[in-house]
Amino acid sequence: MSEPVVSLSDVSLGFGDVTIVDGLTTAFQPGQVVALVGPNGSGKTTLLELLAGLRRPDSGSVERRAAERDAAYLPQSPSFRAGFSARETLRFYTELAGSGDDPAGYLEQVGLADAADRRVEALSGGMTRLLGIAQALIGDPPLVVLDEPTSGLDPGAADRVFAAAADITTERRAVVIASHDLVAVEREADRVVVLAGGSVVLDGPPAALLDRTGAASLRAVLGSLTAGDGDAPLSEVVHE
Q1: Closest Cα to residue 198, out of 63, 29, 73, 26?
Q2: β-pair partners for 126
């Protein structure tokens, strides 16, 4: 197995008396689209921020593969300075990073070649997310972290964003996505990590998770986390 692009060992993080991530140990391999799913408040965004180095754990360790830019993070609602075209925006960031890369290549990689000269304020919501993914590629990071990149998008635009995420995954790069778009996750993700209460309760390829739980869909899996109907909790299912 390849060296992980990032690994966590017994990581915990809280705010005040509230524990957000609780004793989490896992690793992310290159060549995979990994989806983080779970109920609201399960710790998805906090885990993404730990992966990207935006937060430090209270305890435990996060180890990222050494690189000039070891991780890139795209927030749920990326914003860019108005008045600049998509090409000019990426040129600014490539010059800032000192990469000398051609912005056109990044735009083509995410399907925005035809919108290169369009001003960023004229881009649709889906195109803005794609531009954010293109920006995340600058410096060739081994880890790209996307926080709810399809939130608020219509199904067609959401599909384009997930397709772009798959396209930028390489044998040297992993893409980790937090998403509520469970249909797209089930279709596109190589691996799904299900969080509840800041811990991993399920982890594996989508089809394997459905087989393990007996659920018909990931939506049904997530529903069992919040139903409170007296059934055995997923944590028991996982560790049988």
Answers
A1: 26
A2: none
- Cβ(96)–Cβ(169) under 8 Å? no
pTM: 0.90
pLDDT for res 232: 40
- For residue 107, which amino acid is it? L
Q: At how many degrees (to 10) do helices 86-97 and 125-136 cross?
A: 20
**CA–CA–CA angle 233, 236, 237 (5° rounding):** 90
DSSP state of 203: E
Amino acid identity of 206? Answer: P
Q: Is 17 helix (H, G, I), strand (E, B) or coil?
A: coil
Write out the E strands in the chain: 6-15, 18-28, 33-37, 59-64, 72-74, 143-147, 174-178, 191-196, 199-204
**Is there a contact between 28 and 176 (Cβ–Cβ < 8 Å)?**
yes
Instruction: Kindly list the averaged pLDDT for each block of 10 residues, start to end, along the chain of length 240.
Output: 90 93 95 94 93 96 92 92 95 87 91 96 95 94 95 91 93 95 92 93 94 91 67 40
